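Reagents: none. Just compute today. At1g61320/AtMIF1 LRR domain-containing protein.
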Amino acid sequence: MPLQDSARSACVSCTFLYSWRCHPKLTFTEEALCLKKKEGQKVGMDFTNRVNHILKNHSGAGVKILKLVVPGYCNVSTCHLTSWLQNAITPGIEEVTFSLFSKYMEKYNFPCSVLHNGCGNSIRYLNLTYCAFRPTTGFDCLRSLTKLDLYKVCITGDELGCLISNAFALEQLILRICNELIFLKIPFWLERLSCLDVTWCKMLQVIESAAPNLSTFNFLGDPVQMSFGISQVKNLSVGFSYKPNFLSYAITKLPSIVTHLETLTISSINERINAPMVADKFLHLKYLKIYLCINYHRFPPTYDYLSLVSFLGASPLLETFVLSIKHTGDMKHDSVSGDAQMRQIPEHKHDKLKKVQINGFFCAKSMVELTCYVLENATSLECLTVDTIYNSKEIGNTSRCCVERTGECSSIGRDYILEAHKALGVIKRYIVGKVPSSVKLNVGEPCTRCHAIGVKKPKLSKN
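Predicted 3D structure written out:
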């Protein structure tokens, strides 16, 4: 019910008035308060006045969920923010979302005092954005917390340690762009913690976890020193560093750091050297995805995609391999042409590999060599998917015109469409004939409607 209608109903109905004053879900957002910023009109005071009025009439009892999202155009005083939190965070509250905007990040300290006297021990989900949080030694207020999400929050490693020191129920910890963190230490008594997400905390140097049941770790940023003690991390996603050679870092360092991996996703936007062959193994890895965002200024045109077989060789139990390639600039590479001779490397039978997908296949000679290597050495291969169009929404699916709600495929440049048509010819000439009868081949072609540029497509056939 819109806010104005709720207010009118409260004026004529005592029952409705009582239910409103004890309403368990308080959502203070621009949309919920029916505020629309118009050109030349200031509505910042309207936000403050409406929140003040609602909390003044609310009894403060029975609140389960608080969502307070201050719009960017509002200049709300810090005393109002603290007063709102004090009035809304009461014993029994379970979810708190508190979101400011950038100018408050170092200006407003989230008041730890509102969590004292039993008010914080019922909170299961806490989400803070653009503020500072400074808990001190002895902080004992979040014993029921299962999920903590901090985005652009000023908090040091010691302060975060105080915050989670008694959060024995914590299951998921999300830290995004918390740039005061240098050392992240997870204590062993957080036995329920299963998922850790760390994104672009640019000052972070060390992650040390002793949580015994941590199974999923997602990390985006520059490489840091990592230690997981007795944790058996099984699912790992790392990457997006601007520093070069993340693939080399992953294959040389990760096997000894995360020894129980079963799924691994690696993302890189800056590779200067080819992936090296290594002796260490991912002994339990079953699923591997490598995502490359290629711009020739950070990715040499001569990059050898065949070198990625080092990951296959380091993963004896690998069942699924996905290589996803997105170009963000001019496509410069060593194209395969004519009767090119494919390089032969020492045979290594990958008898567990069943599914392989190359999303964003193009005409680089080493790309063709990698595909041929898979066909020749993956003795248990069941399905090979080669998609000439990169589309993040179509992982595992080469269909077109049915992914977006608009009924259209993703828009791509003419050069990429031409490259996709060339890639179809390369697939027909060098790959189709090598596909065993036992392997299902899926080829993703440019969309006849969205990618039509008047190019005649080669007919694909194993015959």
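DSSP finds nine helices and 19 strands in the chain.
Action item: order primers for follow-up constructs.
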